[in-house]
## 1
Amino acid sequence: MQHLLTHISNFHPISEAAQEALENCFEKLVLKKNETLVTEGRMCRHLYFVESGALRGFYKVDGKEITHWFGFENDFVTSFHSFITQQPAVENIQLLEGSILWAISKEKLTGLFNQHHEIERLVRIAYEKYYIRLEERYVNAQFKTARELYENLLLQTPHILERVPLGCIASYLGISQETLSRIRSQF
Amino acid sequence: MQHLLTHISNFHPISEAAQEALENCFEKLVLKKNETLVTEGRMCRHLYFVESGALRGFYKVDGKEITHWFGFENDFVTSFHSFITQQPAVENIQLLEGSILWAISKEKLTGLFNQHHEIERLVRIAYEKYYIRLEERYVNAQFKTARELYENLLLQTPHILERVPLGCIASYLGISQETLSRIRSQF
DNA sequence: TTTTGTTTTTGATAAAGGTCAAAAAAAATG
DNA sequence: CATTTTTTTTGACCTTTATCAAAAACAAAA
């Protein structure tokens, strides 16, 4: 738990009172590799913080699994669309490694927003950061060759290449596994 | 100005006091077609609300202009990365039609956040909506054919096709203008 | 270790869409 | 209107990457 509070304080300092309130709302979750955290068609009512481990969000197109994000240490993850709109999730979240997570429900988070302006601010600022990150990925994805996408990954997030199976990475980059394999062999 | 306040109230109702505060912070801007609102390399310090008209955000790759979003009536637009990080913009914002905009500076907006929790909430909720929208576009862009992307546009945002030159739309969809032209001729 | 299952690589082929160049159409301007 | 200028369309060709199928490598389990 200290892990989460420290991470938050580094990101955007908050008062003791707010920290205590947060502490009372998160619950620890220990999951094993390959377990499923969120399943498509079901509601996702929680936001998760990754203390350690790795997971991925994926959805299915023509029976194929398309990974569209990875989560690692210090990431907040959820099936965002479902969490926000309270509609059934269109994606799945699966553990890529055994992980320690901290979960907070949407109700509790909303309660925290009402009690502590500074927590809502924290989240507002986090959204900005996540939005910018997504925007960057989007711009990259659309106008780079498969090779450039791989190089980017190699430079910017090499841990993904080390910890995640090739098939997941290929769909994450929007290219076929075979193409990724061929590109990788040239390095 | 009433336009903006009405739009905000529809989106998420706020108190009289907050409305007045908002009213004092926005400034009206009337711009002509082809004028530039934000230029790459320069800071973008404002958030804009589109009362009427149309504009686009684009950046340059190998001398080519890549449009990555359009803004129309009731949209909030800005060079988001620059506005948030206060670093020079990497994109340009240009008017596609003569437009009426309302501008608020980052300083004023931050001030509003401090004075009115509910305004920060409003923005937090707006971010959620914009994030989901971007996520959808991202997922689409990566795994649909050029034809499917065009069909999507036709169904979901036909006003774009009616009000925007083909070249802008092609880069927005991530395909060449020639391909878009050929696809369109098949309908 | 063998066996079995999973992941990655390799090869051959095909399809989608890009690029370049020129014509046609449409829009803006004097 | 007539004339530039800009935008869109069309055609020929080429590149990138997907797809399918099979082999190889690797990992897990008996």
## 2
Amino acid sequence: MKPTVHDIAAHAGVSLATVDRVLNDRPGVREVTRVKVEESISALGFVRDVNAANLAKSRSYSFVLILPTGNNSFMEALRAEAMEAAQRAKFERTSIRIVDVRAFDAKSLAAILDGLAEERPDGVALVAVESPVVAAAIDRLAEQGIACVTLVSDLLGSKRVHYAGIDNLAAGRTAASLLGRFLRDRRGSVAVLAGSMLVRDHRERLEGFSAVLNTEFPKLNILPILEGWDEPERAERMVSSALGEHRNILGLYSLGAGNRGLVRAISARSEGEHISVIVHELTNTTREALKSGVIDAVLNQDPGHEIRSAIRVLTAKADNLQIVAAQERIRLDIFLRDNLP
Amino acid sequence: MKPTVHDIAAHAGVSLATVDRVLNDRPGVREVTRVKVEESISALGFVRDVNAANLAKSRSYSFVLILPTGNNSFMEALRAEAMEAAQRAKFERTSIRIVDVRAFDAKSLAAILDGLAEERPDGVALVAVESPVVAAAIDRLAEQGIACVTLVSDLLGSKRVHYAGIDNLAAGRTAASLLGRFLRDRRGSVAVLAGSMLVRDHRERLEGFSAVLNTEFPKLNILPILEGWDEPERAERMVSSALGEHRNILGLYSLGAGNRGLVRAISARSEGEHISVIVHELTNTTREALKSGVIDAVLNQDPGHEIRSAIRVLTAKADNLQIVAAQERIRLDIFLRDNLP
DNA sequence: CTGAAAGCGCTTACAG
DNA sequence: CTGAAAGCGCTTACAG
């Protein structure tokens, strides 16, 4: 039988309360007593039942997820997953509140974070915006012992305890590697559609992409970056005019959003050979384009995994428990037409 | 405040025991009483605290994982993950026993399954072997209410409650799709190295591979399958002689194990242009070959995810709870040199 | 068919 | 600094 606190108490000749004090590192125990109890703990191989402890404490967790608004398909999916998770969490004494913030609005985000100092949730997950005011707000929460996890977009240099998202440098490198292989031995140009070079994710993807393409596939040259602001209409215009202007475009990497416009622009082409296209995030648009052959590959991050992971990590941090690192690593999914889920 | 059984009892004017009977669908409650309690439950929006219930029941889970022996890198990784999971499980009142069985030995596997009828674990996970005796043994356990989950290799037609593994047809299709794109427009042969055509996984991968290659990439023709029995030495010999015999081999798909031999055979070639190579499972060998450029892509299933998923599913089934389907879907990972974990 | 009481493994005031 | 008792939200004999 697994030993319980009663067994420890009996073995050490102390009361339950004292065992509990030692177990939880609470003050007010004489050194000799503490040692005695600790010896019993290791002698009997005691491991605390966390669920029972949480029940006794009436422990419940309260987390806040701060998600950007906007009609971006990916962010919508992230929000839907967050709402499902919130629903399931109720059964495990965990309450999850979803807070909206305007996308890329560092000031508002920081203000929301500061506002949480009063509510004192057990943890916060946020899609970070790269800004010193946000980092400072995260650090203030950290001071108070409120753990912050960055979601999708990281904020290095802040005191966030974990990042639940993909490695964007690796994503860019992977895109280049795939595109280079798809275009094996051909000579020509590659267009890149980004959202904005002000966003770290996009900069990192571009950096990884450029590095691999330039060193490993020197026959392919990257055209000036198209900044589509993640807007379908603008993306369509930019891609269309690029396709018109440069007749030797062999490949296209879309590292941001707005892929509806990109698909329209490519589909509108009446002539020319197949262009190899790699985009990010599996949405209805990209799924259909993958099936129809307009897009060759989709790099994806699983919003469900990101949300579940963020919550698991926050829960673990709240109780100072270990996480299973491999389980929390967010994969870069590569989808072809043939392995769509 | 979240309502508890006490609140339900008070609201319905009955005792805790009766609430419990209704909650757990136990007999011996008059219909009127049952209705009264159920009304209170929905009126107060009661949801049962599963952890508290498990504590009260002194509920503990006992699962058996049946894993094939052999020095296959993938199976070793699976076993290592199982042992880690067993370690972690102790903290959650779950005991996991790992049982060895000779690989591909249907009779022994069935005997082990039958032997479990006495032990009566709460659930069993096994790497299935395609055989009627195994299916029958799984069904006998199912009759007794012992849930079986197939791991890595499925057994259709049996009463297993879940399959924790990849879609092997999709894996084969993906391999063909990648290889076809890597070899864009070229005309030549593709070699396929399998373990054995007697194993369902391998047959399915080949089926998916052939289907896509034949329909979408007609310039590539598949050479007669090399059966390497998952043994490095034999694989090396077969690949070497195939490379010697067929001078127009452009690509190679290894859908089984024994990749150490394959890498040696390819590395030994002194002449000829780059051959595009796609293999299964990320191991030390394939990781290094990916880095050095001998291999172009690795299709992988995450053994850690498979083990954790099997255990989560068994736990859920043991208590008749829902699983989060998306979380339990085992992805087909595609690794290039650029997105290695 | 129904209920009062004890218990699962821990924690928390409170008293000393 | 230490302990006895009650309690977290459920379930389980046992009695009626």
